[in-house]
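re the bet — no i am not wrong, look at it urself. input seq straight from the record:
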Amino acid sequence: MFKKVLIANRGDIAIRVLRACKEMGIKTVAVHSIADADLMHIKFADESVCIGEARSADSYLNISAILSAAEITGADAVHPGVGFLSENEKFANMVAGHGMTFIGPSPEHLRMMGDKIVAKKTMAELGIPVVTGSDGEVKSVDDAIEIAGRNGYPVLFKAASGGGGKGMKVAHTPDEIPNAYKMAKAEAKANFGDDSVYMERYLAHPRHIEIQVLADSYGNVLHLGERDCSIQRNHQKLMEESPSVVLTPEQREKIGEVVRNAVRKLGYVGVGTLEFLYEGGEFFFMEMNTRLQVEHSVSEEITGIDLVKEQIRVAAGEKLSIRQGDVRFNGHAIEFRINAENPETFMPSPGKVEELYFPGGNGVRIDSHIYRGYVIPPYYDSLIAKIIVHAPTRDECLAKARCALDELVVEGIFTTADLHKKLVRTRDIIAGDFDIHWLENNLESLTKGEIE
């Protein structure tokens, strides 16, 4: 087992990893930018190192600074957390090149799944269902029109190196293809430095369903059920739950086994998430996230499995501590992402947290890095807390969520808590009757109080 782990991240995920390490008897190193000197996990870590200026490019994306910090503190492993360098093939290679372990999958799998075209082809070959579309990169407008003519409209252009909804444009008719194609390529280039795009049939009313997997280097693979992440805005998730109300136990087991077999054949090691669109009883692969997910807490609550500890163990070369037959799904869990944003305009709201009170009680979990007096910087992701509720049934879970959200007090900044309070009291959400477009279609009515 590792003796010292450097946590190459910030915020609530850094605290999450730090806690797992401490419970496992592993010493920790926290790295931080100048703007993050007051982060909570820095106070709890055994050592801390400032790695640069406020901008992510000068700190959390600064590979040489992070590796230098690992070397001077004698870390033998690096945990990348989520975002930043967590899916960066170059970083993983350089960590290994410096004699340390990257707590994540191999550089080969990071590269393979980082290219959405390659990922889609690979998964199709491994028996994972995919959306019909282009066989690879769409090279021209004429190619796009020809492919759409074969597969039907509407179609969706997606960035080959993309994620987070960047580089995604829809075309409903042949006349819309030229503009959608050019805009997708321009956005892909601006965000990822690669203007390659591919095309898929656009699904009108899908759910966003993802399957959590965990694998060791001995061929043992687990699936930990699904998470329904359909409540989202601009392809950014706001609320996640498990299990999904649209899946039967038989469907869950079937897709879980399909995913397990594919991951085993791939030789993947670590935690990972296969994301699907689900419509009309069918699953369609979108991408694989080769890291810990923000919403991993939901899967932990319904299975009782500590994903971070298991991730660290398999990275250290140990076998998984459980088998698929040991996995039990218990009750229902929902996670609410509390962002430092205006709940109506979604504009970032950095600033000082003047007052803070987190809800508690049986079945309420808080993952957060903020505290009263903490100043939220304007340089990073706006996620400041996750409220996760767990109960025997979905109805009880929603009731618990309403109480927890009502108890939450964050003063001095805007947060999205008010939006969540409305969501958990809305008829469609309570009934489980929504798709990935629901929030954007109903956001104006929801914020004005015009929807029940």
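see?? The chain has three domains: 4-89, 132-201, 207-447. told u. also The domain at 4-89 is CATH 3.40.50.20 (Rossmann fold). so pay up
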